[in-house]
Amino acid sequence: MKVKFLGTGTSQGVPVIGCKCDACLSDNPKDKRLRSSILLENNETTVVIDTGPDFRQQMLRENVSNLDAVLYTHEHRDHIAGMDDIRSFNFLQKRSMDLYGEKRVLQSLRISFPYVFAKNKYPGVPQVILHQIEERQFDIKTIHFTPVRMLHSSMPVFGYRINDFAYLVDANFISEKEKEKLKGIKTVVIGALRKEKHHSHFTLDEAISLFNQIGAERAYISHISHQMGKVEDYSKLMPEGMEAAYDGLCLEI
Ligand SMILES: [Zn+2]
Ligand SMILES: [Zn+2]
Q1: What is the pLDDT of residue 217?
Q2: Which of 42, 70, 114, 125 could form a Cys-Cys staple with 1, CB 3.0–4.6 A?
Q3: How far is the CA of 170 from the centre of ligand 2 (A)?
Q4: Contact 137/147 with Cβ under 8 angstroms?
Q5: How far away, in angstroms, is 202 Cα from ligand 1 center?
Q6: For the chain, where are the alpha helices, taking DSSP H only?
Q7: CB atoms within 10 A of CB 138
Q8: 176 alpha carbon to ligand 2 midpoint, in Å?
């Protein structure tokens, strides 16, 4: 299976509008980060995790012309704002798009996109089918997911384990019990916002310590803020086996 990083930035992306910091002015393409999302693809199934505000641009950049489903981690705007653009797949594939998330996330989609769920719909609005997931394992076509409960400040969110891979963004706490679900993974993606403490995201040091605890072979950080600085600088602070993901990075898992 392939994992493509569609975006690796925090909610404002990098560069931030109008910002003149070193990260935002960097000409290194790895310092250009759209909002965080990944695409999972095997021979039969293509699933995107989260549709942030850059979803359209990400689908165009990666030439995605077939998408089976969207799976959500949580309902913050930088993870759902691009949902309207699944319309293009409705027209292409001549069917509704399957959206997966926990109850609260689906409720938030209904509130955020009321026209999609209206009784009398404007022609051409997104056609979606909502699928409520629980804390137990589930399949989307041929891809098997294990939800990992995490806390994003006080908000419960989901990370996902897929085979020997796990995607854990937008969190600052995972219980020991939930960490058990990560045993034996080879590759982990951990959200690491910046170096300084934050109320709802892991810092770089916290991400490093989580990587050491999990014992995966390799780790990538994502959901990175411009406050982290330039990738060439913070890359030096990570241990062997750990590096910063970048937009367009593709992994075989
Ligand atoms: Zn900046
Ligand atoms: Zn986020």
Answers
A1: 97
A2: 42
A3: 5
A4: yes
A5: 19
A6: 22-25, 55-61, 77-80, 87-93, 103-112, 176-179, 204-214, 231-234
A7: 16
A8: 23
Ligand 1 centre from 136 Cα, in Å?
39
Ligand nearest to C-alpha 22:
1
206 band by pLDDT with thresholds 50, 70 and 90: very high
Q: Which tokens is 67 given?
A: 């998408």
pLDDT in tens, 172-196: 999 999 999 999 999 999 999 999 9
Residues with CB under 5 A from ligand 1 (ion): 16, 19, 21, 24, 226
Per DSSP, the residues of 78-129 read HHHTTGGGGHHHHHHHTSPEEEEE-HHHHHHHHHH-GGGS-SSPPTT---EE
What's the number of CA atoms in the CB half-sphere (13 Å) around residue 201?
A: 22
User: What tokens does 241 get?
Assistant: 């086996």
Could you tell me the distance, in angstroms and rounded to a whole number, from the CA of residue 47 to the centre of ligand 1? Answer: 31
Edge-to-edge strands, sheet with 37-41 = 128-132, 97-101, 69-71, 46-49, 37-41, 2-7, 250-252
